[in-house]
Predict the structure.
Amino acid sequence: LFGAAGLPALSAAARVRAVCGDGAAYAQECAADPSGQRYDAVLVDAYDALNNVPPPLVRAEGPLARALPSLLSKNGFIAANVPPGFPVQEMMKGYHSSLSRNASDALAFSFQVPETLNSVALVLRSVPEGVS
């Protein structure tokens, strides 16, 4: 199934597996297994009451960004919900550089959620057909 703009859409029958724990460590563990499962989506929603996001989840050289090429399926994406004032562009650059072989391989964009002022960042491993 595909939703708007050719992005994968979840159906009622879709298999969704949520992992609660150290996301960076889990990503490294999964990426280290060459025959392991690849994911269509990685969702990051990890900040505390002071709006701190764990650095291993957002740094360009961090374990999550380094694991993304092995972790995501060919058409996979990473989405991150971050608090107001978070340097979302820097995080997206790290994810994008990890997933793209050249500037046009991956697609990155973000938007602000008006009700919370949070930002949601999306980085698609591949550009959907018809999008330039």
Summary: The chain has a mean pLDDT of 84.
